[in-house]
């Protein structure tokens, strides 16, 4: 299934993705495909970007950043003045209980426990492998829990199958090494976060009332206006309460809380194991916000120290929700990383 539209410097299509091995029959997964407008497409040698979002977000959260990245150009061979696009296409994969996917899956989500990130990983892995088989040069770019999901997709591949990515970019990941988890400090923070979620309002009579409430509260009050508008369109859904039409969050509070206790947080511990186990020459780049807020600096330090990172960048005027708070700066750092990757000779993955 695909629905197309045109916007800015790209066209988009909503595509339903396979999820072979899912434990929940009927659960559907969707992605948004972004391609440069006609006449501005990259050759098959351009990079294909795969984006994943944070908890409580949606697949459109990367849209302003994707728009900027489609403007990237590199010289073609050694010809002066002749430049080609760096990006071939981009895909943003949505967690099945988030964004517009939560509306499509509503009836199923009402009947099953909150989704583990592992349900999303099934989709991500299958997508990444299929792109590799199609000859794409895939770069995984994940924010927070989405970063962990990409790392988890690098294991449990078919025997002999290569890692399907040419590089991975972790944007404000929510990871830490097992020794840091063992201290108990992370769990204390997660417990406090769960209490805060319980106290947070999640039901409004209409979108205008939701806008008034969210715009005055953390974290939404810190967001770039474009990101806030995207959340108002895709982060909320219609519902009813006692027969009265209402508006609520697309990602339920139950789903958000469950993410912070997913199988004893083993998926996120395992994600850091996966990161440390990647080949030494595999490109991993980190982008963090300069402001310490939700994710503490000692957590990032443990991740950076678990292997040799290709590069580490700090984005000013931003914290953990760096893509929502300063998307233009994130675009700049991502652009530099992607141009460096695109400008280097590539090793065959097949």
From TrEMBL:
Pfam families named among the record's database cross-references: Abhydrolase_6
Q: Where is the AB hydrolase-1 domain?
A: 51-330
The domain of life is Eukaryota
Spell out the Gene3D superfamilies in the cross-references: alpha/beta hydrolase (3.40.50.1820)
Indicate what this protein is called per its UniProt record: AB hydrolase-1 domain-containing protein
């Amino acid at each position: 299934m695909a629905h197309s539209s045109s916007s800015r410097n790209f066209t988009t299509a909503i595509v339903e993705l396979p999820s072979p091995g899912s434990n929940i029959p009927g659960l559907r997964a969707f992605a948004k495909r972004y391609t440069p407008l006609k006449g501005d497409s990259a050759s098959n040698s351009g990079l294909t970007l795969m984006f994943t979002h944070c908890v409580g977000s949606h697949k459109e959260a990367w849209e302003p950043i994707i728009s900027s990245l489609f403007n990237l150009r590199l010289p073609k061979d050694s010809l002066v003045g002749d430049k080609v696009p760096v990006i071939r296409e981009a895909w943003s994969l949505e967690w099945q209980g988030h964004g517009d996917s939560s509306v499509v899956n509503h009836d199923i989500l009402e009947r099953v426990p909150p989704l583990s990130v592992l349900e999303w990983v099934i989709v991500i892995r299958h997508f990444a492998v299929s792109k590799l088989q199609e000859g794409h040069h895939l770069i995984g770019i994940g924010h927070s829990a989405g970063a962990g999901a990409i790392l988890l997709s690098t294991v449990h591949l078919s025997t002999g199958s290569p890692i399907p990515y040419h590089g991975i970019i972790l944007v404000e990941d929510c990871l830490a090494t097992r020794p840091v988890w063992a201290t108990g400090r992370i769990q204390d923070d997660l417990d406090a976060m769960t209490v805060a979620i319980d106290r947070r309002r999640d039901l409004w009579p209409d979108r205008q009332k939701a806008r008034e409430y969210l715009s005055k509260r953390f974290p939404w009050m810190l967001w770039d206006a474009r990101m806030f508008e995207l959340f108002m369109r895709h982060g909320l859904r219609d519902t009813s309460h006692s027969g009265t039409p209402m508006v609520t969050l697309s990602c339920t509070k139950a789903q958000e809380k469950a993410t912070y206790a997913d199988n004893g947080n083993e998926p996120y511990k395992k994600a850091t194991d996966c990161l440390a186990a990647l080949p030494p020459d595999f490109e991993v780049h980190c982008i963090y916000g300069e402001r310490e807020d939700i994710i503490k600096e000692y957590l990032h330090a443990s991740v950076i120290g678990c292997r040799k990172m290709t590069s580490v960048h700090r984005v000013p005027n931003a914290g953990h929700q760096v893509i929502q708070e300063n998307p233009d700066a994130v675009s700049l750092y991502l652009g530099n990383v992607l141009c460096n990757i695109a400008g280097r000779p590539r090793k065959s993955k097949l």
